[in-house]
Amino acid sequence: MFDTLFSYPKVLTRHQTGPARDERERYLVDRATVDGLAHATLLRIAGELLIVARWIGLGHDGPVTSQDIVSAAQSWADHQLVQGRARDDRWPRQLFRPNGHRLAPLPRSFG
Fold it and tell me: Which residues of 22-47 are buried (b: 16+ CB within 10 A; e: fewer)?
């Protein structure tokens, strides 16, 4: 799926080598095939998934909890504010807002 979405080699490599690669790719395939999302929408989601995977910290044992997501959202929102990329934490926190029917516990280590 990443090969289909990205044409720039550095961007493709970033997505292929990021945390939870297989899980992110499966999610994108599902959204493309089941939900029929447009290419541009899948690009946006792919970028957001990579950010989420990095900020949640998928290098530890155990499932990802709702509290992990909330903590990652706040950390990322704070980072965006400090960097001047957001005026308040509403937009950055929305990135991490789980879609209840799609969110499932994920293992933190992905071999």
Answer: ebbbebbeebbeeeebeeeebeebbb
User: pLDDT for 71-85, tens place per residue?
Assistant: 777 787 788 888 888
pLDDT band at 111 (very low <50, low <70, confident <90, very high): very low
Burial of 15 (0-12, 13-18, 19+ CB in 10 A): buried
pLDDT tens digits, 7-35: 999 999 999 999 889 888 998 999 899 88
Q: Is 77 exposed, middle or buried (0-12, 13-18, 19+ CB in 10 A)?
A: buried
Which pLDDT belongs to residue 59? 55
Paired with 63 in beta bridges are: 107
